[in-house]
Amino acid sequence: MGLVDWLGVDGVVDAVVTWWTHIHWVHFLTIPLFTGVVGFLINWSGLWMLFSPVRFRGVRIPGMRELASVLPRKIQEIPGVLQGGVGWQGIIPARAAKMGSIAVDKAIAKLGTPSDFYQQLEPERIAEHIVASFRPEIPALVDEVMRREHPRLWRDLPGPVREAVVERVQNQVPAVVTRVTDEIGEHIDQLLDPKIMVIDHFRENPALVVRIFRDFGQRELDLMVRFGFVFGFLLGVPVAVADSIVGQWWLLPILGVVVGWVTNALGMWLIFEPPEPRRILGIRVHGLFLRRQDQAAEVYARIIAEDVITLERIGDFLLNGPRGDRTRQMLATAMRPAIDRAAGPARGAVRVAMGAERFDSIRDSVAREAVGRTLTPFRDRAFNAQQAERIQELVARRTKELPPRDFVEMMRSAIREDEWMLYAHGAIMGLGGGFLHLAFFGVGG
């Protein structure tokens, strides 16, 4: 039985008139204004919680780390708790390593294999650059190794003979470098792990993850804050009606919790959902980030190319990463035949004169020393900038091709498990807003 059937039309009209004439209008109208302001503050402070501070700020408490291991999992997810601290770190920078892992799984792995990235860097141009940079170092390299391994022989050799040795080694540089870049390209899938490289870089540079969001999403994030007022105000209207009817002190704080939670949830939904355009009640809706996927792809690609997958970082990973020993051994092995050829027709006689063991030691020392110096040009900033353009082009093109759902997952998955903190924060602020309204205006109804 409906209200109209129960009271009759006249009864309903009388009830509405009675309610209308007894409303305390200041109390009533200030509720949507309060919920609107609280909604704005919820989304504004929620953004601060997402991004700031970049590093953990708080105090370490003795025994907290041990206590944290037995606390509920949701509590353990609060930044700093598992590290034994009470304080805060922005949710996104705190999950930088996780976002790096997801970025690789969801996007970078689909953007290209290590071989794709390496080929995009044009190994032929890398070889040319290495030759140009490495050849002037040959005299010092040969002199250093010979003085260390066979100082007396090197000192006794006539100057023209030493110059001839250096010249023969220099003449082998193009063949050596081509062999090196070919070997790297052939084994790059085993030597280079983009996932480890990205995770480590994001973990060491959490501000970079914040920059990814800020650089292409600041406009949408600012819009979300403004919508916080709109959502809060609209949700405050039924709250004001309910409060004017029920008139109980506990109602505003409880409904404030609901308003705060829903305002934050709507804000997150506004940014990420729906991934593809849909019509809801005749209105076309589309996640704010998704509307500009192409522009976002350009920004994302620029950051990846300039800061994450760079020629310098690839070279550093190859030599100093977890598989660096294998890289060095492989490159040294590739260089030995060229060093043998540098000895020319005299190789046999020199080997006999010096002893096979001493000759091999010198050859291996030159090869080992040359490995690090060969990849030193990877750190050339100007050359890095030129090659970054090609990586940026690859990443941008393939990021634009990602299905919208994958693009959303790449950006949101790192914080999805922690969104409850934002919602809880909204609920607490909504509760506070309800009590604050009670303190100013008293009980309604």
From TrEMBL:
Transmembrane segments: 25-51, 223-242, 248-272, 420-443
Highest taxon of the lineage: Bacteria
Keywords associated with the record: Membrane, Transmembrane, Transmembrane helix
Keyword Repressor recorded: no
Protein name, as recorded: DUF445 family protein
Provenance organism: Nocardioides aquaticus
